[in-house]
Amino acid sequence: MGIVAGLDSSAEATRIVVCDADTGAVLKQGYAPHPSEGAEPHETDPQSWLLSLGEAAGGGVLEGVRAIGVSAQQHALVPLDAQGATVRPALVGSDKRMQATAADLADALDGGRAAWASAVGTVPGPAHQVTKLRWLARNEPENAARTAAVLQAHDWLVWQLLGRPTRRTTDRGGASGTGYWSAGEGVWRPDLAELALGHPVALPEVLGPSEAAGTTPEGLLIAPGTGETMAAAFGLGVRAGDAVVSLGGSGSVMAIHHEAIGDAAVTAFADATGMHLPVVRLLNAVRVLRGTAELLGTDLDGLSALALKSTPGAHGLVLLPYLAGERTPDLPYTAGTLSGLRRESMRPEHLARAAFEGMLCSVADALGVLRARGVEVERVFLLGSAAELPAVRAVAASLFGARVVVPQPADYAALGAARQAAWALGVHEGRLDPARPPAWQGAAAQVIEADEEERLVGAAVRQQYTAVREETHPGAFGERAPL
C-alpha cells in the first residue's frame, strides 16, 4: 500500500518517478540535469548527483513517498578516505585512459584473461572499477594510498540518503560489474581489488534484492539500489526466456538466466531479482546505419525507406558490419566487408538493405552466443531509437528467430528502482515474499512475430550472412559458434 519512488542518476541527469506501490502506475515525475561546469571528461564530483537529485525532487515530488529505490550509472568509482570523504572526483564511464591499464591488469593475474573470467565472470575492461583502481595506483599514487573504501554511484547515493552511516551497502547487480565480485559464487574477491590498488580496501556489504539498506530518521525506507542496466531490465519486466537488445552506436544483448555465465565472450552480471544477467557486447550497431546513410546521402529514415524497396537478402549483398573492429566475435583489428557485388546488386536500396541485415545478423550472432551457452530466448525486447525504424521492425523477428517486443519510450531504470522500493517496502511490512517481486504491469509495447514463411526467409538470410562471415573470418567464434 502507499506510494514509492525510483530515482535514476544517469550520466547526464536525475529522473524521478513516483508510483503506486501495488500497480506501478506513475503518479508524478521529476527531472534535473547534473551540473557540469568545470567537469573533466570521465570525472564527476559526486556532489553534483545530490544537487540534481534535490532539484528533481523539488515542488513536493517526493511528498507522501514511503520508500525509495536508487538506480545510477554503472562503472562509477567513488574512492573514499578513512573518514568517508571523497579522495578525488569519481571516475565514470568507459575512459580511454584506462585501455592500457585494463590490458596490463588482465595480464597481472596468473592465467590471464581466462583466470579473470573464471574468477569473476568478466575480463577487466576500461569501464570496470577494478581497472580504475589500478589506474589510480599507477597514475595517482598519493590518492591511491588515501583510498580506504570504494563505492559505486548508487551505493554512494544510498549512503548519503541514509545520512552516511557506518554501514555501507551495495547490491548483487552493482557488485557484479566491479571486476572483483563473483556472480557465480556470490562473494567479493578482495584479493583482486588489492591486486589492482596495491593495498586492501573496504568493500560494501552486498544486500539481497528485496533487503532494505536502511531507514532514514524520518522513517523513509531506502532499498538496496542497483545499476542502470539491472534497473532497466527490472522496470521492463523481463523474465527468464527474455533477452534485451540495446541499439546505440554500439550494442549489447543481455538475457535473464538462472545461473552465472562468464567467459571471454560473455560478461556475468547479476540482475535485480536474484537471477543472472549474462551480457554480450557489440562494437557496431547504429553506427553501421549512420555510415551507410551518409554514404548514400540520406538519413536513418531515408535509409530505412530505401531498404524496404529491396528484397530479403539484398540481391546477394552481404555487409559484415565490423566498422570499428568487433568484440563479438573477437576481431579487434578487422574492418567491415561488403560481399556479393554484381552489376544488378549495385543499387542504393540493396546496400541499404544489406546494412540493416548485416547489423541485425550481427545481433543474431550475439543472441546465438547466449543460446549456445544454454540461455533460452523466446522474446527479444528491442531498445534504442533504431527500434523505431520500419526496416528494423520488418526484419528483426525473422532474423532473431523470436518474438520481438518494442516497448514504448519510458524511464525504465527509474521504474525499476521504484519497483525495487515497492518490493523492499512490502517485505519490510510482511506483505510480500522476499523471493517474489511485486507483479507490476509490464511495459506498453508493440509485439512483432514472424510467421512461418518469414522465419524461413530469415533463416536463408542468416545462412547467406554466416557463409560470408565464415569465409572471411574462419573460426571467429571458435568451437562455440552461435546457434
TrEMBL record:
Highest rank taxon of the organism: Bacteria
Ranges of residues in domain Carbohydrate kinase FGGY C-terminal: 300-425
Keywords from the named record: Carbohydrate metabolism, Kinase, Transferase, Xylose metabolism
A molecular-function term among this protein's GO annotations: kinase activity
Every Carbohydrate kinase FGGY N-terminal domain range: 4-220
Record PROSITE patterns: FGGY_KINASES_2
Family, similarity comment: Belongs to the FGGY kinase family.
Protein name (database record): FGGY family carbohydrate kinase
Lineage of the organism: Bacteria, Bacillati, Actinomycetota, Actinomycetes, Kitasatosporales
